[in-house]
Amino acid sequence: MEAIIAISCFLFFAVIGGLATSVRIVQEYERGVIFRLGRVIGAKGPGLFFLIPIVDRMTKVDLRTITLDVPTQEAISADNVTVRVNAVVYFNVLDPVRAVVQVENFRRATSQISQTSLRNVIGQSSLDALLSDREAVNENLQHIIDDATEPWGIKVTIVEVKDVELNPQMIRAMARQAEAERERRAKVIHAEGELQASQTLANAARTMSSEPGAMTLRYLQTLVEIGVEQNTTTIFPVPVEMMGAFTNMGNGGTKSAGVQIEIETDEPEPNKVTDEDSDSGIDVDPIDENLLPKSSD
């Protein structure tokens, strides 16, 4: 009788234990992939369901978006600049069965493919693209990683490059380049301003020259501006044409002041020695001009 009671108790606890191990509860954001005798029969959930003890085995898969940090990768860009780049990847599982059957560990596999893809994209992109065109780089990364993980039932939604690290020498070189570019733009803007100002001044000069009273109005306006500043000095501008007229009058009077008349005579000059004197061998002393008689005017 005692043996029967012992066997009954054993069977009772075995049934209770089997029921406890066969009952499974899967959350709303999870799915349970069921294997029966080693063969996959599908994904179940969410909710409560039963498994056959010893025969069935279940693997839970999270369907929520997973955030994956890509470690810093050091690579050489397309323009031979060494950079260190890190990124973040957002993905979720669309097919739990393939995520369990097709790959051993889909999280680790996605992390590795993200690192290699990041290095490849850096090698194909220039430094300017990495710094200024992040959207194109992120989109290219997202397509590459998504295509690689699609057979595993994984959908990569977002890939973002977080930080681009440069060596100090490159940072200083970029600072000098930016400073030179700013100086060039400043000089171009200054030159354009000078050109526009010169054109405006030329137009104003033509307009004022065509109107006789424009210069007088400008002179009066200048006097008003000087008076506002409480200045006791008054400047009277003299036109250049007036100065030119006075100069011409002075030159004309000087030229008409006298007439130069030249009279030719046959008498040799006092100090001039003739050919006849030189041929005769007579030494002729020079005549002092003070001894000659002076003719009256």
Any descriptors?
297 residues; alpha+beta; Tetrahydropterin Synthase, Chain A; 3 domains; three-stranded antiparallel sheet
Question: Can you describe this structure?
Answer:
With 297 residues, the chain is α+β, with helices and mostly antiparallel strands. It folds into three domains: 2-61, no CATH class; 66-166, 2-Layer Sandwich (Tetrahydropterin Synthase, Chain A); 169-225. It has nine helices and eight strands. The protein has helices at 2-22, 96-101, 106-124, 127-132, 134-149, 168-210, 214-228, 240-255, 275-280; strands spanning 23-26, 30-36, 39-44, 47-50, 56-62, 66-76, 82-93, 154-165.
Widest beta sheet: strand line-up: 3-2-5
Shape summary? rod-shaped
- State the helical fraction: 40-55%
Biggest sheet details: 3 strands, antiparallel
Task: Please give the number of β-strands.
Answer: 8
The CATH fourth-level homologous superfamily of the largest domain: Band 7 domain
Uncertain stretches of 5 or more adjacent residues:
253-282
Q: Please provide the ordered H/E string of secondary-structure elements.
A: HEEEEEEEHHHHEHHHH
CATH architecture of the largest domain: 2-Layer Sandwich
CATH fold assignment of the largest domain:
Tetrahydropterin Synthase, Chain A
- Specify the CATH class of the largest domain: Alpha Beta
Structural class: alpha+beta
N- to C-terminal distance: 185 Å
Separate helix tally: 9
Please specify the SSE layout and strand pairing:
Layout (H helix, E strand, L loop, with lengths): L1 H21 E4 L3 E7 L2 E6 L2 E4 L5 E7 L3 E11 L5 E12 L2 H6 L4 H19 L2 H6 L1 H16 L4 E12 L2 H43 L3 H15 L11 H16 L19 H6 L17
Antiparallel strand pairs: 1-4, 2-3, 2-5, 6-7, 7-8
